[in-house]
Amino acid sequence: MTSRSSSVVISRCICKATPFAELLPQATAAGWNLSDLIRETGCGGQCGLCRPYLSRMLRTGETEFYEILTEDSLSRAERGGV
């Protein structure tokens, strides 16, 4: 369960200054997976800190996150079954 009262709000790829809310419609329309999104937009391809958020965004449709995510905190399904 996440708390929306948290002061942490993660809503964009910092390296590309691109809001997740802009990426989601593009990814949905094109049928992108995480690798496709990284290749097509560059988001997630530099520092990589947004990759867990991008992965969850693609899976759930969320574009704002109120907790710190890491690759280790993602479920197996969110990591693409890896």
Low-pLDDT residue spans: none
String of helices and strands? EEHHH
- Provide the structure class: mainly alpha
Helix-residue proportion = 25-40%
Which CATH class applies here? Mainly Alpha
Task: Based on the coordinates given, report the CATH architecture.
Answer: Orthogonal Bundle
Q: Give the CA-based shape.
A: globular
Strand content: under 5%
Largest sheet: 2 strands, antiparallel
Strand order of the largest sheet: 1-2
Nearest-angstrom radius of gyration?
12 Å
**What distance lies between the first and last C-alpha atoms, to the nearest angstrom?**
23 Å
| DSSP summary: helix tally | 3
Q: Provide the domain count.
A: 1
Mean pLDDT: 89
What is the CATH topology classification name? Arc Repressor Mutant, subunit A
Topology, number of strands: 2
Brief descriptors of the model:
82 residues, 3 helices, 2 strands, 35% helix
Summarize the helices and strands and which ones pair or pack:
Layout (H helix, E strand, L loop, with lengths): L11 E2 L4 E2 H11 L3 H8 L9 H10 L22
